[in-house]
């Protein structure tokens, strides 16, 4: 039997370089991805290297609050 529920949650990953450049209005938009993570195995904030279409390169995408 499984213990408890809702171990896997859906999170949003946002480009870190776009959010820094958005203050200076250099980028056209903010890249966001959605994924799922296991709360027990990764309790910290998740950071993955993903492709950002507004930066045209692979950048670090960090977990954000909803």
From TrEMBL:
PROSITE patterns, per the entry: RIBOSOMAL_L33 (PS00582)
GO biological process per UniProt: translation
The keyword Transmembrane belongs to this UniProt entry's keyword annotation: no
Gene3D superfamilies named among the record's database cross-references: Ribosomal protein L33
Record keywords: Chloroplast, Plastid, Ribonucleoprotein, Ribosomal protein
Superkingdom to which the source organism belongs: Eukaryota
Cellular component annotations (GO), alphabetically ordered: chloroplast; ribonucleoprotein complex; ribosome
Cellular compartments annotated: Plastid, Chloroplast
Entry keyword Chloroplast: yes
Main subcellular location of this protein, as a coarse class: plastid
Any GO MF annotation of the entry: structural constituent of ribosome
NCBIfam families per the UniProt record, alphabetical: PRK00504.1, PRK00595.1, rpmG_bact
Name assigned to this protein: Large ribosomal subunit protein bL33c
Organism name: Cupressus gigantea
Species lineage: Eukaryota, Viridiplantae, Streptophyta, Embryophyta, Tracheophyta
